[in-house]
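User: Can you help me understand a structure? I only have the sequence.
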Amino acid sequence: MAKYSPNLPCPCGSGQKYKKCCARYHKGALPANALLLMKSHYSAYAVGNSDYIIKTTHPDNPDYTDDRKTWKASINRFCRETRFEGLKIIEWSEVGSETFVIFNAALSGGEMIERSRFLNEQGSWLYVDGEMLTGSPSDS
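Assistant: Let's start by predicting it. Here is the structure, written out as tokens:
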């Protein structure tokens, strides 16, 4: 996958350049809340950053595995085969260390609307799981 230019608009839809937005999280800064993690997760898929996706996925996630090589290859394949065309946040609610974010992701395989669950553990937000509400991308 070609390197994503830091001067391009951030895939999360913030209107900022990638280098001023999600790239900082991809380089190690901790998102202050689950909404920022969700947006940076989407951006990581869009720019093909499988390491970030793995690092910010909770061990209770159904895709989580200790076989990092296979998991990373699967994420990279999905990133290569999918165009990430837009992200819209529909709603989010934070209750203590648990947050739910409902989003609509426009992907080349179709629209995906998901209700994602995030947990904050020891100051770091992690993606736990998601429930598809409507849509079904052909690539997933």
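Now, to help you interpret it: The first strand starts at residue 84 and ends at 95. The chain has one domain: 18-134. Let me know which part you'd like to focus on.
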